[in-house]
Design a protein that fits this description.
Length: about 675
């Protein structure tokens, strides 16, 4: 009786072993959880650095563009000190075109503000003497004394509101003297809407998952006050970047919002499963130790069975197999028929080589035969075999089974169907080839783009050197004015190229958002035609508008629609010889879809080349494109803008006949308040 109680009781060593197993399992779960959480935090931190770096680059680009506007106006003022308001308005309206974050441009005669564009809403600024502004005059006086540009603010304006102000002093260039070394003429100013600028850069979208703050009023960097976001963010461990400004800097702080990196749901579930597993492991330990304590004979009776199934588990595949000493199959699990369609009976008595019909000259088969001859275990041996389900890839693993006297009894192992994996590997290889081809196309595009960027830059530098050096004498004002116009034209061309690259990048990154509203298509068509008509006349082309009466209104982003039309018409004008014709039309088809078309009778291209025109970094007939100028980004941008509207863009073209581009806006964007038009 005492012996029975002793054999049925649990010793303290068993309890300690079970407890240690539970504690070790819980510790492992805790370490795994901490590791996963740290990796998640690192990913969020890396993404935050990437977002902050991109935002800093965008802000520096926009402010640099603003300074270029400011210096362009200063150059014009220096060469035309006696300009009238009409002349100032005409030049300023061209200069401010497309710069939606610029609130107004202004010039002063001496220190008194004389002209402002646009005038509406800014009348209060006229006649203001900078010397009467104690908060701004010291910095302005310092800029005049040092003859340097100044970027101040954000500051409160005389006419109301808060904005960033860029100012450049302008000096007369005396005959025979150094440029801008004469008497002080006045200042030019550019007023930038900071909130509008940040909204244009998509800061509100970034703030959905991150906190953002900006400081450095008047370009004072870390010493300047915070003018956007949470002041405490700079002291809360956020990622901080310096933003370079003319004569100073800002600082940008970005941090992830709390809760952005919660513990993954899978890990939370795994935590509870691990706790249950730990308890089960403890219980299993109790049972196993108890059974071990009951006798060695019980272990010996199950040792052979455990070894057999351990071999199966270690080879880990979809079906199990066993061979004799001659490597012929003696047993196959039933899964073989469900996986590859081959019943177990079809394997029995055959070797793997006979079943697959392999080539003995292949290196893989030669290595496999050597493994069998040397009685070595093999793993992941892959071969192909014909099956009722076609030619399949099979992967096999096996271990030798030895008798107690050292004789080979056969092999045991498992096999799995890896056809899908091999097909995926082939697809990845094909994708790699396509990526390499795209990289080659990108390199070709960059070579073309370098030419497009250098051409206007060379013009800007050349004409600026002629003006700066007064090559034609101090009295050649008209010729210098013409050179200034050439500089302005080249600068606009360069700015258009940069804007196209930025638009294309935002479209590809999914960061460009449209702002749909109900618009009148004929008005947008006429607006676009007015922007291209001068180029068409210069090229000797007829630019016609063919619109039916009663077109319904369209729900679309008006800026995007005009950009699409201008891109398509510019392309048509570029590739249509003198005497040709470009037509802009629209119609409603039977399904209620609005189709806007731009057609020309120009040079055209081969139909099989049409698809390449819609791909970024692709250009057809590079020599012809280079001779006509342009970076070839208009069509990809138009295609991307149509996709944002849920529409399509199709091109029909033949060499010598011309090209027609069809933009289809879905019926859901067409207001049906007017009668439907169906045009052929």
């Amino acid at each position: 009786m005492a012996d029975r109680r002793a054999s049925g009781s649990i010793s303290w060593q068993t309890i300690v072993a079970a407890t240690a197993g539970v504690v070790a399992t819980l510790a492992l779960i805790y370490m795994l959880e901490a590791t996963v959480q740290k990796r998640a935090d690192d990913r969020v931190r890396d993404e935050t650095v990437r977002v902050a770096s991109a935002l800093r680059a965008q802000i520096e680009h926009e402010l640099t563009t603003t300074i270029l506007l400011q210096k362009g106006l200063a150059a014009y003022y220096a060469t035309n000190p006696g300009m009238t308001y009409d002349e100032f308005e005409a030049f300023a309206s061209d200069l401010i075109l497309g710069a939606r974050h610029v609130r107004n441009l202004g010039i002063s005669r001496g220190t008194v503000i004389a002209e402002v564009f646009p005038l509406v809403g800014n009348e209060a600024a006229l006649g203001v003497d900078y010397r009467s502004l104690p908060g701004q005059w010291p910095a302005i006086e310092r800029a005049i004394a040092t003859r340097s540009s100044l970027l101040s603010g954000p500051t409160r304006l005389v006419q109301g509101g808060t904005a960033l102000i860029g100012r450049t002093p302008v000096f007369r260039s005396p005959p025979g003297g150094q440029p801008s070394s004469g008497e002080f003429l006045g200042l030019v100013s550019v007023v930038v809407d900071v909130e509008g600028l940040l909204a244009r850069l998509g800061v509100s979208g970034i703030e959905e998952s991150r906190r953002i703050a900006l400081r450095g009023v008047d370009g004072r960097g870390a010493e300047g006050a915070v003018f956007y976001g949470e002041p405490g963010l700079f002291d809360a461990g956020a990622t901080v970047f310096d933003i370079s400004l003319p004569g100073g800097s800002w600082q940008l702080a970005v941090a992830a919002k709390p809760g952005v990196t919660p513990l993954p749901v899978e890990l939370t579930a795994a935590r509870w499963l691990g706790i249950v597993a730990a308890l089960l492991a403890g219980l299993a330990t109790l049972l196993v130790v108890r059974y071990i304590e009951q006798g060695r004979q019980a272990r010996l009776r199950i040792a052979d069975s455990e070894a057999r199934f351990r071999d199966f588990a270690e080879s880990s595949a979809d079906w199990f197999w066993e061979t004799d000493a001659d490597h012929r199959f003696v047993w196959i699990s039933l899964q073989s028929e469900s996986v590859i369609g081959v019943p177990p009976a079809a394997f029995i008595g055959k070797t793997c080589y006979e079943f697959s019909g392999g080539d003995p000259a292949e290196p893989a088969w030669q290595q496999h035969m050597q493994d069998l001859d040397q009685r070595r275990a093999f793993r992941d041996f892959a071969f192909q075999a014909e099956t009722p389900r076609g030619r399949r890839w099979i992967r096999a693993s096996g271990v030798p089974v030895m008798a107690s006297d050292g004789r080979l009894l056969g092999y045991r192992g498992s096999a799995s169907d890896i056809t899908e994996r091999e097909q995926e590997r082939a697809r990845l290889a094909d994708a790699l080839r396509q990526a390499e081809a795209a990289n080659t196309a990108k390199s070709s595009f960059l070579a073309q783009m370098s030419h497009e960027l250098r051409t206007p830059l060379n013009a800007i530098i050349g004409f600026a050197e002629l003006i700066s050096g007064q090559v034609f004498g101090p009295a050649a004002g008209e010729r210098y004015r013409a050179y200034a116009g050439d500089i302005l034209s080249s600068g606009r061309h360069l700015l258009a190229l940069v804007n196209d690259l930025l638009d294309l990048g935002r479209i590809e990154a999914g960061q460009l958002r449209i702002e749909p509203e109900e618009v009148d298509l004929p008005l947008l068509v006429h607006e676009g035609v007015s922007m291209v008509s001068a180029s068409a006349r210069k090229a000797g082309l007829d630019l016609d508008i063919e619109l039916p009466e009663g077109l319904p209104k369209l729900v679309a982003d008006p800026r995007a629609v005009v950009q699409i039309l201008v891109s398509l018409m510019t392309n048509a004008v570029k590739f249509t010889p003198a005497g040709g014709r470009v037509r802009v039309g629209a119609r409603i088809d039977e399904a209620g879809v609005m189709i806007v078309s731009v057609a020309d009778n120009g040079v055209g291209i081969e139909p099989e080349e049409v698809g390449r025109l819609l791909q970024p970094f692709e250009q057809v007939e590079e020599t012809m494109v280079r001779s006509r100028g342009g970076a070839g980004l208009g069509l990809p941008i138009a295609f991307g803008l149509m996709r944002l509207h849920g529409g399509t863009l199709a091109i029909e073209s033949r060499p010598g006949t011309g090209t027609t581009v069809l933009c289809r806006f879905p019926a859901s964007r067409v207001r049906r308040s007017r009668a439907r038009l169906v045009a052929g």
